[in-house]
Amino acid sequence: MDKLTIVVLRDDLRLHDHPALTHALKKGPVLPLYIADHGHTPGGAKGWWVHQNLKALDASMKQIGGRIWYDKGDYKERLWEWVHQCGADAVYWNRIYEPDTYERDLVIAKELHDKGIEVQTFEGSLLLPPWTIKKKDDTPYKVFTSFYNEFRKHEVPKPLPRIKELSVPDQSWGISLEGLGLLPDINWYHVMESMWEPGDKAAIKRFNSFTKNRLKTYEQRRDFPANGSHSTLSPYLALGVISSRSMYHSLLKRSEPVEPFIRQLIWREFSYSVLLHFPSSTEKPLNDKFDHFNWQADDEAFIQWTKGKTGYPIVDAGMRELWATGFMHNRVRMIAASFLTKHLLITWQEGAKWFMDTLIDADIANNTMGWQWVAGSGLDSSPYFRIFNPTLQSEKFDTEGDYIKMWVAELQDLPAKFIHEPSKAPKHVLDKAGVHLGTTYPEPIVDHKAARERALARYQKIK
């Protein structure tokens, strides 16, 4: 049996700019392997997205002489089994920085090396490895602007060319894609299927459409959820269906103002730098004063938030968009997250967990960074006293209520003047719109002014 290299596929489901696959092919035959790890099961929405992109990548590989092999179980045990069965002399992978996975991979790499198996790991997710950008004293940056300014001084490697041909062994081991069990048991994802086209060709097409049609006005219009000016590329980035390096270098060639979008890519780099240097941040506040914060345990309020039934239309629209599409506009994410942590005083960890289970762009570093930023407990965070008024945010960024009407059907006939705060609308206006507060649409589950004062009092105690 010819020696071959196992290339472990994870958050890198593409054929363009794939370092592990590209370098492995220089040696000879490769076996692209995806293991559904019992210890790291993705959320329901992300599982659906992984399944669709594995299917798309497998189809693309078959067009160039390859395929994907699948297995599930204990990741370490299954990988060793494949090494033995295939007689592989090398294992390559692109690194993942989720703390438990990263530590496990270091152990596996050492064990493989000790048994004479060549191991090579590559940067396949980020522009630069997350340990690259540091201060002069070799400590990590804790302020994004400083990180950003330093990052822009560094050269980002050029992306590798698309793989045009695969040489793979003739083996029939493994299980089917369906056997991975990534699809939810109940088909609640029909809206997602209509919105998201899987595969790296679809991702590149979406990126090209964005840069051609919306990049020019991205900075001015990205905060308005109804106008479609945001990129909607995060689901592809989170799963490595599109290469951030390819995006970065493509942007640098354009004449439009690209810095606002590049800044978003570098915020993602900052998030991963923070995750690498502070791995406990997924569970614990980065600001240790928040260890003593008096959060509120309120299961009923949390359920109302998850269902989009808070009585605050912009929050409810976002939570319903999330459930239906696996996605939520970034400005609305901030409003919804602020509402949970500051109006309801429910821990950011609960919100972060819900987002990881329902977002198709679930990304441990971005998600953790975003929630800690909103809660005020992270690095370079939103100040504790910044408590979004969801009604004012709604009036500013969804003035005519178009976004609300998209997702909160029961408010469709309310005039824009009242759609942001139905509880303040006159009875005859509500009656004409068919809105019956407490029946067809909920009363606000908390009063904004009282909630703000309560939050400030709690924050003041740990200031």
How would you concisely characterize the structure shown here?
This protein has 463 residues and is mainly α.
What does this structure look like?
- With 463 residues, the chain is mainly α.
- The mean pLDDT is 94.
- The longest helix has 20 residues, at 44-63.
- A five-stranded parallel sheet has the order 3-2-1-4-5, with helices on both faces.
- Helix 14 (330-343) packs across helix 16 (364-375).
- The protein has three domains: 5-124, HUPs (Rossmann fold, 3-Layer(aba) Sandwich), CATH 3.40.50.620; 126-156 and 200-277, Serine Threonine Protein Phosphatase 5, Tetratricopeptide repeat (Alpha Horseshoe), CATH 1.25.40; 288-462, DNA Cyclobutane Dipyrimidine Photolyase, subunit A, domain 3 (Orthogonal Bundle).
- It is globular.
- It has 21 helices and five strands.
- It is 47% helix and 6% strand.
CATH class division of the largest domain: Mainly Alpha
Q: Could you give a short account of the major beta sheet?
A: 5 strands, parallel
As residue ranges, the low-confidence spans are: none
Intertermini distance: 66 Å
Strands in their spatial order, largest beta sheet = 3-2-1-4-5
Q: Helix-strand pattern, N to C? A: EHEHEHEHEHHHHHHHHHHHHHHHHH
Q: What's the CATH architecture of the largest domain?
A: Orthogonal Bundle
Number of helical regions = 21
**Rg calc:** 24 Å
The coarse overall form would be: globular
Structural class: mainly alpha
Counted beta strands: 5
Strand portion: 5-15%
**Relative helix content:** 40-55%
Taking all residues together, what is the mean pLDDT?
94
CATH superfamily annotation of the largest domain: DNA Cyclobutane Dipyrimidine Photolyase, subunit A, domain 3
Number of individual domains = 3
